[in-house]
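## retry 2 of 3
previous attempt timed out at serialization; input unchanged, resubmitting
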Amino acid sequence: MNETKPAAAPISSLIWRIDHLQAADWPAAAAIYLEGIAGGNATFEQSAPAWEVWDAGHLPGSRLAARGPDGALVGWAALSPVSGRCVYAGVAEVSVYVADRVRGQGVGRALLEQLVAASEAAGLWTLQAGIFPENAASVALHQRCGFRIVGRRERLGQLRGVWRDVLLLERRSAVTG
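## retry succeeded, writing output
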């Protein structure tokens, strides 16, 4: 007998709480990351790193967690430096991941808008994102938040044996830099 699970109730943006992503959140954040990996259009990565690896690669002041009314993590966003060279100190790469059960409900937009604000408060002048062209929802989200497509990087890497293009999007701050 096939049983279908009932659809998750929508989570209103009025009851999301966005705060700082902590080490204790990593198991739930990694599970959301793995959902993105399983979908095949979120990243070239094939596994979630250990917290220590993820922590070392992301800027400490720009890590956000979106939580539902019960406090459960429903999405996260973070920035990572694009280079160790001082000339690129104000440039960071964006990551935004939303749990499958709440996609399309505005969680990603709330996270990205707050991430942009946090980046500007930290003095960053350019944010960039690499997105598979097939991930139309992510491209649209970034464009709604002020990103523009700068170009298409053709056959940038292989995912599961298939060459994939990546769109390069960027957002230049009008506030800093």
